Amino acid sequence: MSQFFESIRVKDGIAENLGFHQLRVNKTLQAFGASSRSIELASIVHQLVLPVDGLFKLRISYDLHGHFQSVFTPYQYKQIQNFALVDIKGQSYDYKFSNREWINEALLHSGQDEIIMHDGGLIKDCSYTNIVFFDGVNWFTPALPLLEGTHRVRLIEAGFIQPKALYVQDIPNFKQFKCINAMMGWEDAVEYKIECIKEYFL
After folding, report:
1. What is d(CA 168, CA 86) in angstroms, rounded to the nearest whole number?
2. Which of 53, 113, 162, 191 has the highest count of CB atoms within 10 angstroms of its CB?
């Protein structure tokens, strides 16, 4: 069974941001004592026939021994109306593990469409995206997310968003927020009103 995975955006036959995905794969392999050359995404993608029309998610599942599987699925954006705040109480997801059971369970029991996870008040991530808050001038993302998303890294390097320690009590200071991941370009990400965070504003 593959231990880790990467979700790569494929738009009209082009696999996007492979360099950022490869950096995360390398970090994962090195952390668990495997060779950083055992999984090379560019080589894997080169062997595939990419869909030439439309938006697809390419999921590449892999283990520490160089084994991998690849699956294409048409991608549709998740429709989200409401968010719940959930305290994860020290749980972690530092690497993109295939086993996301505890995150899925937290979402299931939240009673809302999506969750904003925090650890004792320190905001981390949503269930499948990083989160970015807008104060009217600048966009800020949690400095210590649950998982460092590839799109998040790219936007930080471009100076478009800024990492900062964000707490639950800071939420009313913001005007809106976005959820971002590798599958959603910045322009594709919905701008949500703060009032969508239902458990905070009940």
Report:
1. 10
2. 113
Contact 50, 17 (CB under 8 A): no
CA 56 – CA 14 distance, rounded (Å): 10
The C-alpha angle with vertex 140 and arms to 55 and 173, in degrees rounded to 5, equals 120
List the one residue out of 115, 155, 164 whose CA is nearest residue 135: 164
Q: Which of 95, 74, 82, 104 is nearest to 183 (CA)?
A: 74
Angstrom distances, CA of residue 60 to CA of 10, 63, 93: 12, 10, 18
The bridge status of strand 55-62 relative to strand 68-74 is antiparallel
pTM of the model: 0.93
* pLDDT by position in tens, the chain (length 202): 579 999 999 999 999 999 999 999 999 999 999 988 899 999 999 999 999 999 999 999 999 999 999 999 999 999 999 999 999 999 999 999 999 999 999 999 999 999 999 999 999 999 999 999 999 999 999 999 999 999 999 999 999 999 999 999 999 999 999 999 999 989 989 999 999 998 655 4
